[in-house]
Amino acid sequence: MTTGAVALPARKVDETSRSATPEDRGPRGHTKVGWLFAAPFLTLYVLFLIGPVLIGAVISLFNTTTVTPGLGTWVGLSNYADVLSSGDFWASMWHSVLFTLLTTPLLLLLPLLFAILASRMARGQWFYRLAFFAPFVVPSAAVCLIFAFMYTPETGLISNVFGWVGLTPPDFFGSTSGAWFAVTLLTLWWTFGFNFILYTAAIQEISEEVYEAAAIDGAGPWQQIRSITIPLLRPTMSLVLILQVLASLKVFDQIYILLAGGPNYSTRPVIQYIFDTGFTSYRGGYAAAATLVYFVILVTVSVLWLLIRRRTAGPQSA
Description:
The chain is mostly helical and 318 residues long. It has helices spanning 10-19, 29-59, 78-84, 87-119, 125-133, 140-150, 157-164, 176-204, 208-216, 221-232, 234-249, 253-258, 270-279, 284-317.
C-alpha cells in the first residue's frame, strides 16, 4: 500500500469549485436572521431619523406654527424662498462656517501632535490617554458652566491669567472677538480627546518592525515621525478632517449655553437660528424649510469630500 495525495479528475475539481457558491456556504435562513437582528436598529432609524426628515419636508410646505394645531395653510416653496433670501439665515450660516474655520485646524493638528508624543512616552501612556480623553465625556452644560466661571471678569481664572502676564483680558461676553476666543478655547479643551483617541488607535496599528528597520538604517525619532508615522496616518487625518468639519458646522450647545449667540447675535450659529425661529418666533414651517436647506448643505459637503477622496485615491490604487 502506498500513501500520498490522490489527484482528483479535472471534471471533479471543476464540479467542486462550482459547488462552492455563496448560496451553498450556509443555510438560506441566515439572511432572514440577519434582518431580524437588524430590525430594532432599523426601526429606531426610521422612527427617529427618516421619519422626522419626511415630516419636516411636509411641514416646510405649509404655514405651520408651533402654537396652533394642524399644518396650517399651503404655501408651497415660499418658505424656502424666504430662507434663501434671509440675511439672518446666511449670517448665522457664516457664523457656523467661521466657527469651523477657527476650530478645525486646531483640532486636526494638535491631537495629532500630542498623540505622537504620547506614543513615544516610555511610561504612563495610559495616564495621558485618560487625561486627554476625560473632558470629552463631560456634559456640555457642565463644561460651559465651568468656563463661564473662569471667564468671569476680575475673578475668573482665565481672566486672571492674562493679568499675570501683563495683558488685558478680552471681554469674553461683551465683544465679538472675545466671544469667539472663549468658545474656541472651550471647544478645543472639550473635544480634543476624541480626535486624540482616533490618532492613538491608528498609531497603534503601525508595526514596530517598521520603526526598528528605520532605526537600523540610522533614522532618528523625528525622521521616523516625518517619514513613517505621518504618511501612514494620512487616512486617519482625512477621516478626522471630515468628522471635525461636520461636527463644527453643527455647533449649537456651547455657543447657546455660554453666549446665547451674543453679543447681539454676532456668534449665533445656524442651528440656534433655526431653534429661535421655530420655538421663539413659532414659525414651524419656516424653521423646517431652513432645516432642510441646512441639511442639503451638510450633505453637499459630505458628497464633495467623498468625490475628492475617490479622485485622490484612484491614481494611488492604480
